[in-house]
Amino acid sequence: MTDIDRAVGAVLGSAAGDALGAPFEFGLPGVFRERFPDGVGELCGGGGWDPGEATDDTQMAVLLGESLLERGGLDLPDVFDRFRRWAAADPKDIGLQTEQVLLGGDPWDLAAARHFQVNTHAAGNGSLMRAATSAVYFAARGRTETMDAARRIAALTHGDGAAWEGTAVLHELVRVALLGEDPLAALPAALAEVDPAHRDRWATALAPDWHPDDATEFNGAVWPCLGSAVWALRTTRSFEEALAAAVDLGGDTDTVAAVTGTLAGAVYGSAAVPARWLPVLHVPLPGFGGRVLRADDLRDLARALATADQERRSPAWP
Ligand SMILES: [Mg+2]
Fold this sequence. Notes:
Elements: H1 3-21, H2 31-35, H3 56-71, H4 76-88, H5 96-103, H6 111-119, H7 132-138, H8 143-154, H9 161-178, H10 187-192, H11 196-205, H12 222-234, H13 239-247, H14 253-268, E1 282-284, E2 292-294, H15 295-313
Helix pairs in contact: 1-13, 1-14, 1-15, 3-4, 3-7, 3-15, 5-6, 7-9, 7-15, 8-9, 9-14, 12-13, 12-14, 13-14
Bound molecules: magnesium ion.
């Protein structure tokens, strides 16, 4: 398996998790297994979602990835503009915190901080859910640049440093997985890079013996969301099992499964994403002229993100 296969796995896997979990959002634990008792889940749709329809998680990940490619790097005002244009087009699903920050009228470099000052609670999982594309893009730049970029992208919508640090850890785990190494083994090194003010809480949620039942918040918060995704990866043996475990937790199922799919896709590669899901998987992009991406478009996006640095170093023509 090549690093490109793994990169495609991360992006496609995140979208698949999002679409698998969407119909079960805000449901109770165990509902997924009741629906699919033999353990073979389908992109079944429901709750306002068409079969295979990806939600805000993947929509924002695509917008972020396209900005990185079209701007030739991290252009934070451009990312914020794309997010805002999308939010203003009334997407079916948008996180409350993300909506308040994007549509509050404040400029890109102040909006999230001002929201955090007023609300004090700003550690939602919304910066984790869109991380597959940026994690793939920055992986080639190494750990420090990857984690720094993750923090800056998270800070566009999330004023709480806990969200920045969790997003940085997720990016780093994906980077390690793309190298073909075990992201779970890399957790201690990743935690060592976390801001000391946030390290203990992250170490708890990412510990080998942590279970989603140990969560002290709803899994729409950043800690149990990433903790549950890591737990799902750790306690299963395949991409599909990891996603089923994530969705079966209930709660913010699309996002927990999108984050799980990011990690499990990077570990198991693109071929592990069930082929039967791909014909229906699709990503509408509200605010962008009725565009709808299909699985092949996500593959192309992932490949372009994974090879962007090589392209820059050796252009096809002078
Ligand atoms: Mg969603």
